[in-house]
Amino acid sequence: MRLLLCVLLVSTLCAQERRPNTYRSPGNAGRERFVSPEVHGDRRVTFRVRAPKASEVLLHLGGGKAQALAKDAAGVWTLTIGPLEPELYSYTFTVDGMRILDQANAALKTGINGLDASLLDVPGPAVRRGALHVRTYFSKAVNRERGLYVYVPPQYDSEPKRRFPVLYLRHGFGDTEANWSNDGRAGEILEKLVAEKKAAPAIIVMTYGYTDGTWAGGSSPEGIDTLGRELLTDVIPFVESHYRVAAGRENRAIAGLSMGGGQAFTIGLKNQDKFGSVGEFSSGLLSGVDFDFEKTLPGVLAKGVKLRVLYVGCGDEDPRIPGHEDLSAFLKKHGIEHVYQTAKGAHEWKVWRTLLADFLPRAFPAGGR
């Protein structure tokens, strides 16, 4: 009986008329593909904003002067500029006075304060590319798991018996362990230097530069001491147990920008037995009118500084430049050999990329000189 009922039910369902299929894929029937920014072969760049009801749209590229876009009949505002030098640029738009990001561009500058700007990458000549590892380690210094980025050069895979020097690279206030890679393009800078035979291939380690996300957690003496302890007892052992690292202080460098520059300078000079090169870019801590070298680094002057390179750098339009000139004069007065370098610009990424490109060949010269 049950079998008969099942057969009748199936027969009834099959006898029902099937619904007609009326679906059609929209395909590209909607708006045309919207590209912004569009980088042309001659390195000119076109920006676009869809804002049919707006009366004014401006482009803010880096720290330059705002530039007006023009609207077409479809309500799309357009501006073509350039050619631009190969570089990573940040930009935003102002639409009738309201600052916005580029809604057509997924490349964003981010940090602990959220989304900051859109990014424009104008590429240079192609070079061999390395890899970026995103790792997690346990920090005993702050008693929690933390993240770090590790860049490895292309030679890391192609030369499996080779060991590499390591740069511990620290970010500025408002940023995270991702920014030296995403916005600073540290790995790409090194790849270009290696291709030009100016620097040796190296590993770059980028860590989170706060104990708790606050200014004090990255800039106070207590915060920097904790971060130094974390670097020496947690980060470096983790890196050296997971990567083929060359031995010896001459194969270990530390550098950083702004807040991270103060950290690198302080941690590096306090631990010259661990680091052969120390670099700072645009540090506010070191350029303040109240900075006291002996109080911040007790005993360093008496013991002396013996490094491959002690590097001090700043943008020539940065308000911190007078303090950096004072710091360089202080080091010179006390017979401390160092490199003092400026780069065109203010407190911004193009300055720090320029300074990193100058620091790396000094810390890890091609051929290991």
Question: How would you explain this protein's 3D organization?
Answer:
The protein folds into two domains: 38-122, Immunoglobulin-like (Sandwich); 131-368, Rossmann fold (3-Layer(aba) Sandwich). Helix 4 (186-195) packs across helix 12 (349-363). 30% of the residues lie in helices and 27% in strands. The protein is globular and about 85 Å long. The strands form three sheets. The protein has an eight-stranded mixed sheet, with helices on both faces. Strands 3, 4, 7, 8, 9 and 10 form a six-stranded antiparallel sheet that branches. A four-stranded antiparallel sheet has the order 1-2-6-5, with no helix packed on it. By secondary structure, it is of the alpha/beta class. Strand 7 and strand 8 (98-100) form a beta hairpin. The chain has helices spanning 2-15, 155-158, 179-182, 186-195, 216-219, 221-242, 259-270, 284-287, 293-296, 300-303, 321-333, 349-363, and strands at residues 38-39, 45-50, 57-61, 67-68, 70-71, 76-81, 87-95, 98-100, 108-111, 114-122, 131-139, 144-152, 166-170, 203-207, 252-257, 277-281, 309-315, 339-343.
CATH class of the largest domain, named Alpha Beta
Distance between the termini: 93 Å
Radius of gyration: 27 Å
Structural class: alpha/beta
Strand segment count: 18
Identify the CATH architecture of the largest domain.
Answer: 3-Layer(aba) Sandwich
Strand content: 25-35%
C-alpha geometry: globular
Number of domains: 2
Round the mean pLDDT to the nearest integer and report it: 93
The CATH topology of the largest domain is what? Rossmann fold
Most strands sheet: 8 strands, mixed
Helix content: 25-40%
> Which spans of ≥5 residues are poorly predicted at pLDDT below 50?
none
CATH homologous superfamily of the largest domain, by name?
Answer: Alpha/Beta hydrolase fold, catalytic domain
